[in-house]
Each structure stands twice: as C-alpha cells, then as structure tokens.
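Late entry, evening session. Most of the bench is empty. Finally got around to the prediction I had been postponing all week. Sequence below, unchanged from the version circulated by S.P.
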Amino acid sequence: MNKIIGSLGRMFVAMSLAFIFVGAFGLSIARAGTEDSSVCASCHDAAAATHAKGVHARLDCAKCHSGTEKHLAAPGPDTKPARPDAAACQVCHIKDANRMNWAFSEHKQAGLDCTACHSNHTPKKIKGANTGKYKDANSALCVSCHREVNARFNMPSHHPLKEGGVSCVDCHNPHAGKNQALTLKTEVCTKCHQAVRGPHAMEHPPVVEDCLTCHTPHGSPIRKLLKLAQPALCLRCHSLAANRHAIGAVADGRVTGSVLRNCTACHGGIHGSAFDQHLRY
C-alpha cells in the first residue's frame, strides 16, 4: 500500500513539473513571437530587408508598432499594427535635448508627425522639384515642403545652402519652437558671422536686437542679403541731417547723389564701433 501511494505521489509530482515546463515553454514561445522580428519577416520580407539596413535594425518590430500581439494571434488587415506616431518615437527620443521640446515646435503645431520627415526603417526618399541640386540631404528634405524658401536660394545673394556650405539645421531646430531659447536672435547669426559680433562700445541698436531688421536670411536680389538697397534701407529709420550730408555741411543745403549712393562708404562700422558714435569707423 505504501509503495502504491509513493508511486502515485511521484507520478503527481512528475506531471506537475511537466505542466509547469510546458506552460513556461509555451509562454517563452509567445513572448518570442512578439519580440522577435524574424516572425514578422516571414511575411513582411520587403519591410524586413529595409529594416535590417536602418538605424533601428537592433529594435524588434513591437518596440515601435503597437498591436503586434493581436496581429500575430490573428493575422489580417483588421489587426494590422499601427504605424509609430510621435508619442511612440518619443519613448526613446524624448531623452535627447534636441527633441524634448517637440510639443512646442511649429511642425507639431502644424499637425505634422515624425513620419513627415523621417521613415520608419530607412532615410526618407526626397521628392520635389530642384531638390537634387542640394548637396546636403537635410536641406533637400526641408525645401521639398518649403517651396518659397527654395525659390529664394536661386537669388543672386544667398547663403551657400545648395553649395553645401551650410545646412537648414545649422540655423533652425526642426524639433523645437522659435521661442524655446533665452538667447538673442542675433546669436544664431553670430555663431558663424563672428566678425560682426559685439559687444561694442558704440552699438547699432537694430544689430543688437535682430539681424533680420536689415537682412533676409535665405536669399535676396540685393548683395549681402539686404532687404533693400542703400540708402532706402537706412532711410527707413534715419533721416538725412543737412548739416552733415549737404554740400558745405550747411543747413538746408543740397544733398548730392554721392551721399545717397552708399551709406556704408562713410559709416563703415555699421555693425558697431569701438570709437565713433556715428559708426564711421
């Protein structure tokens, strides 16, 4: 009798261990099915090929595509996993200081998502007229939407974007808004244009406040990216004092064309001076 009870006990223990093993093995298979991209690749071979070449090659499909488990359990168009949106991307990329202010960006406010500029698996194919003329891929992608800016880079005076000297992202942060930094607007320009960077003993207020008071950043028909030719540009703020600009420097004197031709011929320190309050040198 004791032998029978002992045999039954050992059989019960063996069966219990078998059930536990099978359950654990089945659970591991289920988990592997949702985490292993090779399961997805058995059907989505084209997507798997591009995924293997992309920057996200080490990530499994379920990391970005929600609803993968339901799709594996019942494959079909009704259970198709969702494409990753900005929220899915920010699970990883929110830690990046360049992307943490996405919620305040102009692209976000315009209703765009990450996939408007980025592809899930490989770099996004750029479409649009004249984008092939840009050496920088980021800039070519930007002008494929910003057509009005693209036209300005065809003007005689323009930043060397097509030539590859600068990129759109050197001045613009596509993942943040314009007002996220507590810095002056001019600091974006003076990162490169350090020769005109202050402070100066004699400042020119428009230069301190905003370079775009006089310059247009993308392109202009006027040299040095000026909004207007001289003296029209300067006369928007300044009047011509006859006692300084007229013949003989007398009040109510006649102002000659030479004075109206080029203000910076005399006011060479237009961006600021260490010596002269009239910015002549």
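Two things to note before I forget:
The first strand starts at residue 157 and ends at 158.
The first helix runs from residue 2 to 35.
Will write this up properly tomorrow.
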